[in-house]
Write a structure and sequence with these properties.
The protein has a five-stranded mixed beta sheet. It has a two-stranded antiparallel ribbon with strand order 5-6. The protein has one domain: Cytochrome P450 (Cytochrome p450), CATH 1.10.630. It is an alpha+beta fold. It is built from 17 helices and nine strands. The chain is globular and about 65 Å long. Bound molecules: protoporphyrin IX containing FE. The site of protoporphyrin IX containing FE (HEM) has 24 residues, from α13 and α17. It catalyses: an organic molecule + reduced [NADPH--hemoprotein reductase] + O2 = an alcohol + oxidized [NADPH--hemoprotein reductase] + H2O + H(+). This is Cytochrome P450 2F3-like. Keywords: Endoplasmic reticulum, Heme, Iron, Membrane, Metal-binding, Microsome, Monooxygenase, Oxidoreductase. It is found in: Endoplasmic reticulum membrane; Microsome membrane.
Amino acid sequence: MDFSGTLSILLAICITCWLLLPTRRKKNWSHLPPGPTPVPLLGNMLQVEVKELIKSLRKLSETYGPIYTFHLGSRPCVVLSGYKVLKEALIDKAEEFSGRGDFPAVQMWSHGNGIVYGTGERWRQLRRFAISTFKNFGMGKRSMEERIKEEAQYLVSEFRKTEGKPFDPTFFLSCAGSNIICTLVFGERFEYTDEKFLTLLNLINSNWKLMSSTWGQLLFTFPKIMRHVPGPHRQIYKNYLKLAAFVGEQLKMHQELLDPNNPRDFIDCFLIKIQQEKNNPTTHFNDETMSKTTVNLFFAGTETVSSTLRYGLRILLRHPEIEEKLHEEIDRVIGPHRSPCMEDRSRMPYTDAVLHEIQRFADIVPMGVPHTVTRDIQFRGYTLPKDLNIIPLLCTAQADPTQFKNPACFDPAHFLDENGRFRRNDAFMAFSAGKRVCLGESLALMELFIFLTAILQNFTLRALVAPAEIDITPESSGLGSIPRPYQFCLLPR
Ligand code: HEM
């Protein structure tokens, strides 16, 4: 069934429900910011392109300003658009905006448990625990760096096997990124040919795609109805169950081999914490939270890094002059005989700027992840009631013309000062900001730097078409923007 057919059926179901169901009294939303007028049940969905939700939301902010109310079906949400208002909310009122908003595609599986989709005291404790455990295992420190360097060499040797012939890098980049999380969480990496590992990657990739598809958008908008409508979106829940089953097997193996005095990884640390808290009747540490949290880490950490790298390589194929400058800096600072390491970064401002610009431009989580306000608050003259959904349009900070000179263009100068030194920009919000800021930020930055420099140290990119023909506009169609598959060659240097 095509999309318009589905939409007609949905409309019919909505209107029938509206006519048959008794009117429900909703919370008083009368002091919310103004926005487009909603219609019952469909909300504002007739005023947007479901396939281009983000573009539509950005467009609406031209009419209604940086803060407006938008009805996702029958749920009112407040949309924040532009760096200034995002900073005021996520950073200046970090605590108040730290709730997690509805994420219907995952809710059926997560039930609000785990880090990414959790909220309140359980989320706080799980997040604190994960951060301190990651620190112990060297996230942002040397041991993790060694692991990433090692994985970069596996990646380079896989790339060598292509012998300069055209190929699509998607699969290899996903393996490399995911193996870093595997090391942290399971204490081991997998071969790129390992059947179970490949199944795991397929499940993550498939859910990321489904959640960003039109079907995913419809589920996001009309969760109660879409749960009963057949379609590919229903696979999201099934895939989560399979991911959880994989994690469950790992948990069992870890339980059998656990040495409380010598934890090997995140799961061992979680098992020890469960033991320590076993007499606490209100503890949040149990098998269920462990499983949900572990799946969260996989999902959040695998596709994000590899998609960013894929975009990055495509942008460099479009801009060979930038690739050339990167080669020059890599050759000057690292040379051909040793692996890139994090110490190099401070002496490679151009590479650092290019990586930030790739993240700004590619914008792989353009809509952020929905937040809620944790209590009734006054914000910019409006009353936002507790639990109100907030959509932080992170892409609007990263494309804010008051913060970036030429936001529509890919230009590493956005992150360089007049002396060619790396310059931070607070509007860089690829990892969001405030209390919910991405938990894997430092790990992701380390992976991006080491993987990209290792690739360019060993290869020159060669496009199959003229660079000017390569389209690098991000496909920000949904919650995550998935780069289109593409082929190119890597010529050994
Ligand atoms: C380029 C790579 C990455 C990008 C662009 C990215 C981006 C994001 C964004 C936008 C959020 C939502 C923050 C919010 O709610 O405001 C997030 C959350 C999160 N990310 Fe990442 N991420 C990346 C890599 C990673 C990695 C490698 C990990 C693995 C450890 C990770 C773990 C998480 C977790 C656990 C959360 C949920 C935090 C919470 O709700 O408290 N991310 N990320």
